[in-house]
Amino acid sequence: MKLDIGNSLKILTKDCVFAQSKKAKECNEMLETGGGKGRDFLGWLSPSSITKIDMNDIKATAYNFCINCEVVVVIGIGGSYLGSKAVISALSNSFGYTINKRPTIVYAGYNINEDYLYELLEYLKNKVFGIVSISKSGATIEPALSFRFLKKYLESIDGKENAKKRIVVITDKVDGPLRMLANQEGYKTYAIPNNIGGRFSVLTPAGLLPIAIAGIDIDQLINGAVDMEKETSSNIPFEKNLSELYAVVRNELYKIGKKIEILVNFHPKLYYVSEWWKQLYAESEGKEFKGIFTAAVNFTTDLHSMGQWIQESERTIFETVISIANSKHKLEVPLDEQNFDELNFLSGKRVDYINKMAELGTQIAHVDGGVPNIRIEISELNEYCLGQLLYFFERACGISGYLLGVNPFNQPGVEAYKKNMFNLLKKSGC
Ligand code: PA5
């Protein structure tokens, strides 16, 4: 993985970035030593801590779903679904052909929408399906509500005993209503470690089981993360430490009024990686009346909509571009004798090359237009590189939150809406 901050150094000086190196190192060390805020939520720091036994167990459960189900419904919200959704979307065929005839994965419990739930139940009619219900607290209304419907539906068609064989619960090891329900019903369960919060849980069973069901190599995903852990540890010098550099540059840009970070991709399969990233940084940093607002665009698609705003609106933004060096497939533009579309100047060129020129052209235009740019390059869209990328962002998020002076591992602000909603719904005790 490469990180290029050159196009931010046109607005920030190299000196001001390097002046923060000591502070960034201290923040990174605080993650390693548990000396900072939220010290009880640092379990994600060592992705290698997931044991071989756990990995094999996850693979065996995934295999079980594969041989028994056409569809698997993954229930979860926020950190309990975005990680797996990001990886599965990034590594699956764009048109939904499942890898090696794996079950189709659909999601539920990330909204409270009657039509969505109704249509999901309709879709599941006459399909053999299983359920992976994920909630760390086990008390979140969106997934709990969906699980109630889906569990009842599965039991109604299969009977309680058979349904059990196709339900897996991923939740806290001991506490919470979902844990109690799972114990009571005798479901197969996995625990989300106590010391890992939802948005950092992609490399725990919460992310790994759905990803394995989709036929994606979870060993390689973990390998990428483990290698990135080494590359971003505090003993790596600042100028080579990708997470420290990224954390510093985005905080320095924030200090000079760049309040919005736009994550840019040029590959539609990265859409949910951006959604995952948006949550990771917004929920980790947006507190105490500070924090960068995280947004995302998908280029070239959004160049025809948001591109105008980015080029000419308020200069309060910067872009972080994820670029994939090599596409998986090869397609050259064919020659057309009639050339009505006037595209023969492209004949023989790869589509990926044209996309890369769009990427470069956009970068030049936006940087010239006063939008600082950070560029992250991964060599290809595969398990290993994605594992690296996810870990890089997590590590940088911890450092960045500490640089900002907040606790990156809590989310007190999400309680307010719940309190009001439960009051309005007249939940007893509220
Ligand atoms: O990052 C977080 O902690 C949150 O986004 C949670 O993942 C989200 O609120 C879902 O919580 P739970 O897994 O407890 O249902």
Instruction: Determine the mean pLDDT.
Output: 96
Basic shape: globular
Distance between the first and last residues' Cα: 48 Å
The CATH superfamily of the largest domain bears the name: Glucose-6-phosphate isomerase like protein, domain 1
Q: Name the poorly predicted regions.
A: none
Q: What's the order of the H and E elements?
A: EHHHEHEHEHHEHEHHHEHEHEHEHH
Order of strands, main sheet, comes to 1-10-9-7-8
Number of helices: 16
What is the highest CATH level, the class of the largest domain?
Alpha Beta
What is the CATH-assigned architecture of the largest domain? 3-Layer(aba) Sandwich
Write down the domain tally. Answer: 2
Cofactors and ligands: 5-phosphoarabinonic acid
Count of DSSP strands: 10
Structural class: alpha/beta
Alpha carbon gyration radius? 23 Å
Largest sheet: 5 strands, mixed
Question: What fold name goes in the CATH topology slot of the largest domain?
Answer: Rossmann fold
DSSP strand content? 5-15%
Structure, described:
This protein has 430 residues and is of the alpha/beta class. The chain folds into 2 domains: 2-38 and 222-404, Glucose-6-phosphate isomerase like protein, domain 1 (Rossmann fold, 3-Layer(aba) Sandwich), CATH 3.40.50.10490; 44-219, Glucose-6-phosphate isomerase like protein, domain 1 (Rossmann fold, 3-Layer(aba) Sandwich), CATH 3.40.50.10490. The protein is 46% helix and 13% strand. Helix 4 (82-91) links the parallel strand 2 (71-75) and strand 3 (104-108). Helix 2 (21-33) crosses helix 15 (383-404). The protein binds 5-phosphoarabinonic acid. 5-phosphoarabinonic acid is lined by residues 77-80, 135-137, 140, 143, 197-199, 283, 411.
